[in-house]
Design brief:
Blueprint (H helix, E strand, L loop, with lengths): L2 H12 L5 H8 L3 H13 L19 E9 L5 H8 L5 E6 L6 E7 L2 H12 L4 E8 L15
Antiparallel strand pairs: 1-3, 1-4, 2-3
Helix pairs in contact: 1-2, 2-3
Amino acid sequence: MDAIDQRIVAQLVKDARSSYAEIGKVVSLSAPAVKRRVDRLLETGVLRGFTAVVNPEALGWGTEAFVEVFCESNISPDRIRQRLEPLPEVVAAYTVSGAADAIVHLRAANIHHLEDALERLRAVDMVSRTVSTVVLSTLLERPPAPEPR
């Protein structure tokens, strides 16, 4: 990724609806040249796609928690992912270092829905215990910068 690619990514992060011509003006390239670069960024996995950023609260998913998941015995990350995928409240899951085997990000409509989701998570056959932290407010949330800081 060169400096022009980084500027293209920065423009797409700023506004993914920007046309190739608009991006071209910012990076001093023609629209077809920008398209070729965007296609290459998609092919190489730098860009994973384009999406709308939705406010979860506006859709009724305003309660969230981060849950440390402790598994019975040694479980592969792929198996953990397979067991978590069926739970619609799981919006992200990560393997982590430390005592927990994974961290799970849950979203729910309200505290009662969250409690139900936690109970279903705890009932997954590989889970031995969980430690939950309910989010009170979001202080900072931002997309990754095109250039490492």
